[in-house]
Design goal:
Length: 201
């Protein structure tokens, strides 16, 4: 076992010990910010609640001329091979990415009205995921954007299903443009309604 693997196991074990100690000290109520951080180790069980609208991540990019391409939906699908019955790292990674999208949807819909959506860790991770998806497609671009939509079953996704639209973001940069990120729900929203920098896009 390498030094990095050993250190990772030690840090993970220390985190679990700290979590158990904090729960023991505060009582048997399973709550608190430290336990909230544990959700990254478990799937989002809201998947089993019913056949409602599904959170889907969409991305698009703009070339050097400022022309924006079409929105592309991220779907966690990978070619199946018999060997995947024993080892399927690619599909597991794609499903973990979709789990992130599910958590972002939940965070956006439950966040406080006064909070900036860009402060969410799930938003920042989705930003990185969107950038990686565009880079994987090999699209030459200078800007990119991502959008979160709640897509009902058997319906074609449209922009009016969006609950979150990111600002125009510079490729290979963490600094957003001046257009604010937006999030809206059917209930009072924590920030302005989702708008696109280009209405015709």
């Amino acid at each position: 076992m390498t030094t990095i693997q050993t250190l990772s196991l030690i840090l993970l074990a220390a985190y679990f010990v700290f979590l158990l100690a904090s729960l023991r000290r505060r009582g048997r109520v399973i709550a608190g910010p430290w336990l909230f951080l544990m959700r990254s180790f478990f799937p989002n069980w809201r998947f089993y609640h019913g056949f409602g609208a599904q959170p889907r991540l969409f991305t698009r990019s703009a070339n050097a001329d400022g022309h924006w391409g079409d929105w592309t939906m991220f779907m966690p699908r990978a070619p199946f091979r018999p060997a995947h019955l024993f080892h399927n790292a690619r599909n597991n990674l794609l499903l973990a990415n979709q789990n992130l999208v599910d958590h972002l949807s939940f965070d956006v819909q439950t966040m406080a009205d006064s909070r900036d959506v860009r402060e969410l860790v799930t938003y920042q991770m989705a930003d990185r995921l969107a950038r990686e998806l565009i880079e994987a497609r090999g699209e030459p671009c200078t800007q990119y954007q991502f959008q979160l939509r709640l897509v009902p079953p058997l319906l074609e996704p449209t922009e009016d299903m969006a609950i979150l639209t990111s600002p125009m973001l510079a490729m290979r940069s963490d600094t957003p443009a001046t257009v604010p990120a937006s999030a809206s729900m059917s209930t009072p929203s924590p920030s302005p309604s989702p708008t696109s920098p280009e209405d015709a896009a």
